[in-house]
Amino acid sequence: MSCYLVENDIIKSIIQNVKIILNTPKGSDIYRPDFDTDLWLLLDQPINSFVEGQIYSEIYQALTEFEPRVNILSISISNYDKPKISIQLQPKNSSEVIDIWI
Questions:
Q1: Residues 72-77: what's their mean pLDDT?
Q2: Can you give the pLDDT at residue 91?
Q3: Residue 21 to residues 33, 76, 87, 95, Cα–Cα distance (Å)
Q4: pLDDT in tens, 13-60
Q5: What string of DSSP letters covers the chain?
Q6: Residue 66: phi, psi to the nearest 5?
Q7: Which of 100, 76, 85 is nearest to 13 (CA)?
């Protein structure tokens, strides 16, 4: 029995990579200590305009650095009591738009 972790469909691969990037705490990969984000720390705080700005910045910086196959179209936060984050991405050289919720 084989187990494949590599996704061959480019859209599915991007979605998979974005979720890994945003859901893995920074420093948890000992071989890449700067990989991923501190997003999990921000989502445990009360959401105000300062924290909201930090969330946008953290997502933007991480995706710009670790997922170069996409352009970020938008990042939005809803339901501040239990934050839901929506990210719209567009693969480079494509007109398709990807919506990801975290």
A1: 96
A2: 96
A3: 13, 17, 13, 23
A4: 999 999 999 998 888 888 888 887 889 888 888 888 999 999 999 999
A5: --------SHHHHHHHHHHHHHHSBTT-STT-TT-SBSHHHHHTSPP-HHHHHHHHHHHHHHHHHH-TTEEEEEEEEE-TTS-EEEEEEEETT----EEEE-
A6: -105, -10
A7: 100
Burial of residue 53 (number of CB atoms within 10 Å: 0-12, 13-18, 19+):
exposed
| Alpha-carbon span 51 to 59, nearest angstrom | 12
Domains in the chain, CATH or no CATH each? 10-101 (3.10.450.40)
The two structure tokens encoding residue 99? 């919506």
Token code pair at residue 24: 């893995």
Positive or negative: CA dihedral 18, 24, 25, 29: negative
Distance CA 88, CA 68 (A): 14
Q: Which two tokens stand for residue 27?
A: 């420093």
